[in-house]
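Justification of computing resources. Each target in the renewal requires a structure prediction run like the one illustrated here; the chain below, 227 residues long, is used simply to show the kind of job we budget for.
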Amino acid sequence: MMGVDVEVKGLSRRFVKAGFEIPVLDNADLRIEPGGALALVGQSGSGKSTFLHLLGALEPPSAGQVLVDGRDVHRLSGAALNRYRNQVVSFIFQFHHLLPDHDAVTNVAMPALIGGGSATEARRRAAAELARVGLGNRLTHRPGELSGGEQQRVAIARALMMSPGLILADEPTGNLDPRTAAEVMQLLLTIQREQGATLVVVTHSLELAGWLPRRIRLRDGRFVEEA
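Resulting C-alpha cells:
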C-alpha cells in the first residue's frame, strides 16, 4: 500500500480527572500528504501520544475528524475498522512490545497471522522483512537474545509486515544509545521512502526530529509548523 492522505479537522480530546476537564487537543487541524514524513515534538504530557492513538483509531476524539484517504476512521466499525487497524496503520513503540516467548520471525509474522493469513506465507514474508532490516541471521532468536537495537529492528519489521500506508512511531529510539538510535532512524526513513508510506514520528528529541523533513510542535492543544 502506498502512503495515505491524512487530514485532521477540528480535532479535540479532553479527559476528566478528579472532576476537572483537561483539554489535550483543542480544535486542532493538520494535513499530511501521502508519503509525507514529519516529526511531532512537544513537552511531556502535551498530547503527542494521544494524537497517535487518535490517528490509529485506538481511542475516540471528543470532537472533530481524522480523515484517512477521505474516510473518517472514527466512523469505521466491524470489518472495516479491523482492516484499518491491521492493514492500513501500523505502530512502532519505544518499548518494543515483542512477545518474549516467540522468536523473531513469529513476532514479525503476527499481524498477518492475526489477519487470518497462511502461517507458511506469513513466516516467509516475515523472514524477508527481517532480512530487509539486517536480521536475516536472527530469525530464530527470541527477544531476550537480541540487543535493544536488534529488538527495535524486529519491531520495525513487524510494523512493515502488512505494507501499511501509515506508520506511527512513538519515541522509536527513546530507549537506545545515540549511535544505535541514529542507525535505527536511518533504517526507518530509508524503508519509509522505499515504500512511500506516510510517517509520523513522536519524539521529545530535537536531534531526532531533525532527521525528518517536516517538524510540527504540539502547543496548547494545537499544531504549530516549525521551520
